[in-house]
């Protein structure tokens, strides 16, 4: 009878344990699931360009995992005022959260702060706004990316000669890429001289024309680092037209198809591949966790262990002819 009683008690314990375990698992699953009418918005600029596709895919993948809805909006042109207008319209609709890539690190802060003050969680991705109240910034460590490009360029030009930078001077991520490149060249490769830092604007036509001007002023340039994909394409087109293909080494940024094709054919020696899918995926995860009280609002700079980290480095990969095939969209 004692053994039967002990066996019966043990059986009750096992049943109770499994019941509680199932309840906890169910609660955990319900705790990380939203509702389909809960909408999060991704905001960019030049919304139609290929670059944003991977980040948007990450945003959508996270939405599917969390059972929430997403919307993609952005300025159609490279226009600060248009992006502010788009963001104002989104704030008025009071979405569950906003992930935004800031066209300007200072001028967009007031509108971002308006969203946060209205109780809408905001995170930044790709291009930041350090003076804003956004909770977190998910991006490439652009200074490190610029430094990586400098080391690659130095190896391509034999650690001597003149090079130049084609950049976007009013955007924080491009500023950091340029600074990383310049300071690394100055510190580690004193025989490589950066002859010029040129504004390539945000399209291939402008950067192509800027390249002609650069090569006219510095005909012996051995390399050009473009901090943005369209610029890299424009630089490559100009160098091809000048019949200097392969003689002037080009390093670009990002992995859109046009850039990858130029890497594959050898016109661009290397490009810096960013973790754009991760930017989109974790942006939505961060927003969702703040919205549902799973982490504290505010940045990790505050004395709160549950707050979001102020910065997340989503990584960089040097893409060359040797590994380019891995980066085409499947």
Task: Give the secondary structure arrangement, pairings included.
Blueprint: H1 2-31, E1 39-45, H2 52-66, E2 69-75, H3 80-92, E3 97-100, H4 109-117, E4 122-125, E5 137-139, H5 142-156, E6 161-167, H6 172-188, E7 192-199, H7 204-217, E8 223-226, H8 229-241, E9 249-253, H9 257-265, E10 270-274, H10 276-291, E11 296-299, E12 307-308, E13 311-313, E14 316-319
Parallel strand pairs: 1-2, 1-3, 3-4, 4-5, 5-13, 6-7, 6-8, 8-9, 9-10, 11-12
Antiparallel strand pairs: 10-14
Q: What are the salient characteristics of this protein?
A:
single chain, 330 residues, alpha/beta, Rossmann fold, six-stranded parallel sheet, 10 helices, globular
Question: Any overview of this molecule?
Answer:
The structure is a single chain. It is globular and about 95 Å long. The protein has ten helices and 14 strands. The protein has two domains: 39-139 and 276-315, Rossmann fold (3-Layer(aba) Sandwich); 142-274, Response regulator (Rossmann fold). Helix content is 46%, strand content 20%. It is an alpha/beta fold and 330 residues long.
């Amino acid at each position: 009878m004692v053994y039967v009683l002990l066996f019966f008690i043990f059986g009750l314990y096992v049943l109770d344990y499994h019941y509680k375990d199932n309840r906890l698992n169910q609660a955990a699953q319900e705790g990380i699931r939203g509702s389909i009418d809960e909408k999060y918005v991704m905001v960019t600029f030049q919304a139609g360009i290929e670059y944003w596709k991977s980040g948007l895919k990450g945003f959508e993948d996270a939405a599917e995992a969390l059972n929430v809805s997403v919307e993609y909006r952005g300025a159609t042109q490279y226009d600060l005022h248009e992006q502010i207008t788009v963001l104002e319209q989104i704030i008025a609709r009071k979405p569950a959260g906003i992930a935004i890539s800031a066209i300007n690190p200072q001028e967009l802060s007031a509108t971002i702060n308006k969203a946060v003050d209205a109780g809408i969680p905001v995170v930044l991705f790709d291009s930041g706004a350090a003076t804003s109240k956004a909770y977190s910034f998910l991006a490439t460590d652009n200074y490190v990316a610029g430094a990586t490009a400098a080391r690659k360029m130095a190896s391509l030009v034999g650690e001597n000669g003149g090079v130049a930078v084609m950049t976007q001077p009013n955007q924080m991520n491009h500023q950091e890429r340029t600074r990383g490149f310049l300071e690394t060249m100055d510190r580690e490769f004193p025989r490589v001289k950066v002859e010029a830092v040129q504004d390539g604007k945000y399209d291939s036509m402008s950067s192509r024309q800027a390249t002609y001007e650069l090569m006219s002023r510095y005909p012996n340039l051995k390399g050009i680092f473009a901090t943005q994909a369209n610029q890299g394409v424009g630089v490559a087109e100009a160098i091809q037209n000048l019949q200097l293909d392969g003689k002037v080494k080009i390093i670009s940024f990002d992995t859109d198809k046009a850039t990858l094709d130029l890497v594959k054919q050898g016109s661009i020696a290397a490009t810096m591949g960013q973790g754009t899918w991760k930017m989109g995926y974790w942006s939505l995860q961060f927003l969702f966790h703040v919205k549902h009280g799973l982490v504290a609002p505010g940045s990790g700079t505050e004395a709160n262990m549950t707050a979001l980290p102020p910065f997340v480095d989503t990584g960089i990969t040097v893409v060359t002819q040797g590994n380019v095939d891995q980066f085409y969209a499947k």
